[in-house]
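Quick board copy: two proteins, each given as sequence then tokens.
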Amino acid sequence: MINPFDTQPILANPGLPFCGQRPADDFREIIEVFWSLRIQGKGQHAFDILPDSNFDLVFLLGPSSCSALLSGPYTRKVTIFLDDSLELFCVRFQPGRIPRFSEANPCELVNGGLTLRSVPGIDLARLGERLHELTGFSARKSFLEHLFRKADLPGFLPEERIRRCIRHMEECAGRLTVRDLSLTTGMSVRTLERRFLEELG
């Protein structure tokens, strides 16, 4: 298990029962962490989402239902309201590694989210049943990793030249200008801006 404050889950509410684990080795370039959170108490609860550069695939597990949301990144603090008796099981992707699970433009996910009708290769109704059946965080994590392997998760990532840009930015710890990145990659500043908006929001 990892320290929940090491990865800054999107819901910044201390004292809640949070659990997190790093992904298997073959997913480390794509997934930062799996995490879960159980909502306790009666009625609706307000949660603050802090600014970050990650996208999250969030499975909302109710007593008899499962829905999936794709959310983030967040450029400002956003407050959301969640009902009690919900458990969140989440996949937090590495910055810039947003699988295209839907036709939505990533720009539409900034400071918000989108309810998914399906996840490629995964039947949401069956997935909800299975996640409810499984006991323990590790079992759920292993099950999702198995499904992601079958669905070829890397095949849903942004195009390779954008991933190269992201890796270069990470190697430089973000200490480079858009102009520097343009010179390094051979893409014009305008093309970079357009492609980043299209692929990453």
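And the next:
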Amino acid sequence: MKLNEDGPILLVDAYNVFARSYCVVPLMSSHGHHLGGSIGFMKSLSMYADKFSPSRIIVCWEGGGSARRRQILPEYKMNRKPIKLNRSDIYEDIPDTKQNFNYQIELLTRLLRYLPVQQLYVDECEADDIIGYICRYEFGDQDKLIISMDQDLHQLLSDKTKQYSPASKKILDEKYVLDRYGVTVENFVTARCFIGDSSDGIPGIKGCGFKSLVNRFPELSSDEFVSVPDILSLCNIRNKEKTYAMFRNILENPEVPLRNWKLMYLDNSNLSATHISKLKYTTADYDVKRDKIGLIRALIKEGVDMPRGFDVDKLYMRINACIKKQG
């Protein structure tokens, strides 16, 4: 699928895509090492280039988490479960180690340097923040496709920005958000501030879900932006008309959604001047590299079976077919 004549800018949520490959791709090296994460990612990149014909590919990495968010909520992302291999029938004799997981990420960053692909990493800056900044401030008027299963990125969807979910293999747009959650993209974050996000350790208000919120606050389904203070004000008014447990819970904990907005909304507020400066510089400094021989040598050293385990020729053919104007 080609989103426009020149092809969209592909923004890859690196850790999100890598983690999925790590769990499900059954690829072993001749040295007996699990390489499903790194090689699976490369295979996915080849497929995305063929499927979406991007004009540019930007791989966005996690930078160790957001210090600013941890200052707001120390528990932020502290209790995430470790990623485990879920192919025990294949990997029953392969230890699922943090060392292997980290090695594959390091290997992937090295392999990507042989491709006409830009990698972005900013210390203490989350991939979501990088993607949000790029979408809103660097390429706002250009077509973009975010590759990620992360729900946090739904807030960025617009006529110029879509999201592709590797799990459902579907392109997600504004209509998807409205149909799936009952709220518009404009009000998606507002609703989530009351719901919270258990995966990131962000508590919400008891009794608040998308369905219940839309039922009590139908304004969330409109195209007009409704802020957290707006919902608090409406809650206060409607609680006087008819009392519900949800209203009571919200009014007793107004600081929770107000705090959550600072954690969930993707904007400059969680980026320092240094972060922004580095993002502007590295986004503009797009130095295309093509080193097919170097990639082949690196894969041989890792014990990757080619072309059965990974087809380098297909990868280069697909990427070169769409990224022609960059040198």
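Board note added afterward: The chain has 15 helices and six strands.
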